[in-house]
Amino acid sequence: xxxxxxxxxxxxxxxxxxxxxxxxxxxxxxxxxxxxxxxxxxxxxxxxxxxxxxxxxxxxxxxxxxxxxxxxxxxxxxxxxxxxxxxxxxxxxxxxxxxxxxxxxxxxxxxxxxxxxxxxxxxxxxxxxxxxxxxxxxxxxxxxxxxxxxxxxxxxxxxxxxxxxxxxxxxxxxxxxxxxxxxxxxxxxxxxxxxxxxxxxxxx
Length: 204
Description:
Blueprint: H1 30-104, E1 109-127, E2 130-140, E3 148-153, E4 158-162, E5 172-180, E6 184-203
Antiparallel strand pairs: 1-6, 2-5, 2-6, 3-4, 3-6
């Protein structure tokens, strides 16, 4: 570096003239100052880029959190739907079990009417539809050959007991069954009896 005052050639990095002591700082190449300024600009630019990146990362992090919170209620709802479906299935299973139990229950003959009396006469009764069984029995007055107990219906079903002149004086019984889809009318006809009884049962 050349001294402006005395013209002596000094080393490039010298700050003062070796010969006269004049300051050489003002004479440094402008390129060094420019490089220094450029370095400052680069540092500022890097800081700005870092700040922008931090902002972008923060933005995506917040959006990701909101998306997850929105997804959770849907998952909860789906879970509730599954639980409701399970409850519904359990309800249907209970109904099926109840129906199966009802079907598996064995049927039996259930009494729907019992009639009795003595002497002679007739009696008319109505019998509901279904599978019906009729049981009858009677004991006659002695020394009569026309003693009887007859039960007959409008559907043609009938049964009864009677005694002849040489029959033993004793209780006699009879029974019959039928199935009808409608209500039937039955007549009980009894003559010269000490006692008689007619019972109706339905299979259910």
